[in-house]
Amino acid sequence: MQRILVTLLFACICIGSGWSQTMAPPSSAAAAATPQASVPVKDPVTASLRMLLPRSRNNILGAITAMPADKFNYKPTPEQISFAHLVVHIIGYNNAACAKAADVAAPKVEEVKETDSKDKLLAAATASFDFCGDALGKMDDSKLGDSIELFGGRQGPRAMVALGVASGWADHYAAAAMYLRLNGILPPTAQPKK
Fold first, then answer.
1. What DSSP letter does each residue of 131-176 carry, written as one string?
2. What number of helices (H) and strands (E) belong to the chain?
3. How far, in Å, are 38, 89, 93, 110, 170 from residue 142 at the CA level?
4. CA dist 178 → 82, 97, 173 (Å)
5. Cβ count within 10 A of residue 69
6. Using one digit for the tens of pLDDT, what is the confidence trace for 141-191?
7. Environment class of 21 (CB within 10 Å of its CB; exposed 0-12, middle 13-18, buried 19+)
8. Sequence-ordered strand ranges (E) for 3-149
9. Are the beta carbons of 141 and 45 closer than 8 angstroms?
10. Which pTM value belongs to this model?
11. Which of 142, 136, 147 has the alpha carbon at shortest distance from 169?
């Protein structure tokens, strides 16, 4: 089961980070010259989430920062959510999903609304990533097989939430990047290298 979880997490990471488009597999000569680590990683799912956190945090918070305050009500179509609604969703998702994945209590935070200011939403989003960092710091893989109530009242393994954290971060950044591009703004990962 652990091998399946690690494989699924790796697939989420590759898809979410654009690995298949930005990184070519090493040539056979380079692969032969690179020593392979033979030491197993302790808590590989948790370790992988911790590795993804800084990049996801920087990209998502960077996207929120890049969107002008007067564009937080922007909707690509009337049926879609506003950028501010996306930010509110990200905040709630981080607090709930990281708590469930790590088996810790969700933080008691002031509820934010999409009508709140950009500064307030950015601060709450930053705090939600701080909480994820704290929660993942307390997490290990020993409880990933526990059956818990998932979102929507379904039952499933805690690992499903852990995988959802990784895929959620990728999905949230992709959505934020689309909103930025539709407003003529390059998202953080499209900015020229300095």
1. HHHHHHHH--GGGTTSEEE-GGG-EEEHHHHHHHHHHHHHHHHHHH
2. 7, 2
3. 22, 29, 23, 32, 25
4. 12, 23, 9
5. 12
6. 999 999 999 888 899 999 999 999 999 999 999 999 999 999 999 999 999
7. exposed
8. 147-149
9. yes
10. 0.80
11. 136
β-strand partners of 148: 156
Residue range 28-61, pLDDT digits in tens = 444 444 556 678 889 999 999 999 999 999 999 9
Q: Where are the domains of the chain?
A: 2-15+42-190
Spell out where the chain has E strands. Answer: 147-149, 155-157
> Taking each helix axis from N to C terminus, what angle separates 44-66 and 2-17, rounded to the nearest 10 degrees?
20
Q: What kind of architecture, by CATH, is found in domain 2-15+42-190?
A: Up-down Bundle (1.20)
CA-to-CA distance for 175 and 180, rounded, in angstroms? 9
Which residue reads 């007067």 in tokens?
Answer: 70
The residue written with tokens 């805690």 in the block is: 158
